[in-house]
Amino acid sequence: xxxxxxxxxxxxxxxxxxxxxxxxxxxxxxxxxxxxxxxxxxxxxxxxxxxxxxxxxxxxxxxxxxxxxxxxxxxxxxxxxxxxxxxxxxxxxxxxxxxxxxxxxxxxxxxxxxxxxxxxxxxxxxxxxxxxxxxxxxxxxxxxxx
Amino acid sequence: xxxxxxxxxxxxxxxxxxxxxxxxxxxxxxxxxxxxxxxxxxxxxxxxxxxxxxxxxxx
Amino acid sequence: xxxxxxxxxxxxxxxxxxxxxxxxxxxxxxxxxxxxxxxxxxxxxxxxxxxxxxxxxxxxxxxxxxxxxxxxxxxxxxxxxxxxxxxxxxxxxxxxxxxxxxxxxxxxxxxxxxxxxxxxxxxxxxxxxxxxxxxxxxxxxxxxxxxxxxxxxxxxxxxxxxxxxxxxxxxxxxxxxxxxxxxxxxxxxxxxxxxxxxxxxxxxxxxxxxxxxxxxxxxxxxxxxxxxxxxxxxxxxxxxxxxxx
Lengths: 146, 59, 245
What we know:
The structure holds 3 protein chains of 3 kinds. By secondary structure, chain A is an alpha+beta fold. Chain A is about 30% helix and about 30% strand. Chain A has a 5-stranded mixed beta barrel. In chain A, β5 (about 100-110) and β6 form a beta hairpin. Chain A starts with a helix and ends in a 10-residue tail after the last helix. The relative contact order of chain A is 0.13. Chain B has one domain (about 1-45). The relative contact order of chain B is 0.06. By secondary structure, chain C is an all-alpha fold. Chain C has one domain (about 20-220). Chain C contains 7 helices and no strands. Chain C has helices spanning about 10-40, 55-80, 85-115, 125-145, 150-165, 165-175, 195-245. The radius of gyration of chain C is 21 Å and the shape is globular. Chains in contact: A-C, B-C. The interface of B and C includes residues 14, 20, 43 and 58 of B.
């Protein structure tokens, strides 16, 4: 390749990468950077019905029910507000009551219809025995796992 | 042999754990090998330039 | 110490001497970390066996940030003080940092699929890490874009410094914004949230990856110094050849 072409190619590549990086950053600064709304956010911001958003919080204890077909019903809470969620499909391994969750979908007449449900876990790491011991001694602060 | 197959299965997550370790090994070892080769070639090229030149060695 | 090593040849000799030691320490640290991580540490109460991916994912991410910081620092020194080794060490560091960023993204993806339920999300942590990879690649491309290595080095140094703002963004992304990626487990105000049995392999591999970086960086700096010498000799010989024509 001629030297001039080589140089132009590299500069073009660099600019392309830079441009993509900048585009990613800018896109992120729109809705996406708010990766999810909490139930309280949803209530306060009055998100329009039918608008595609993400809802994040904890799966409310005792709220998980299997409905007809492969539909799971549960409630998402941030310990202040709760939202009812309906989801059709396979749930991730970590999905359980008391666990963090992020659902993507739309709000419709007070029920959040999710088409994707992701489990969100916290930043603590410990062996199961230690978790059990902490729970028994009443010092448990983290998320639950049966 | 159940011990080994259980170990490899990693509670059903082996398909995610072992490829992770594999890609780390490939990239890190690969980068090391490539870097050493580049250095080796460069050192040889330098020696060739340093050595007393025969007239036809001019490129 | 910097003044001593302003002479590349002296640095080469030093590098050749300590390299085998650094190599041995690297193998020992990573080896023992792998042993602990794979054979002698528990599964996690929450994430089960997948926690073992943490032992390569987190050190890779640490190194991605560490290398970029070192690279940006070296570029600043190169621009301000024009220390001959600064530019070379930045060039040498880039592919290593890019490699670790790539590994952090791939191992993260392999960890995210079973635990979160997805290979990728555009949350602030993952997006900013991808931007970091692009910054590394852009730096390497700019370095090679010019016939005059000095111009390439200068423009890429400016890119490296401008891009440095991404490093604190990555680190604090999980605190500043709602993300799927969880907050920090090790470097946090209240101390590590990792049990000692898991922290041990993590730190061993973290240090081992750092010495690995020094190992490969030394090799690559030696390469850069040698390549410079070759260029100089070739120019000199071309000039002599022309004057004899």
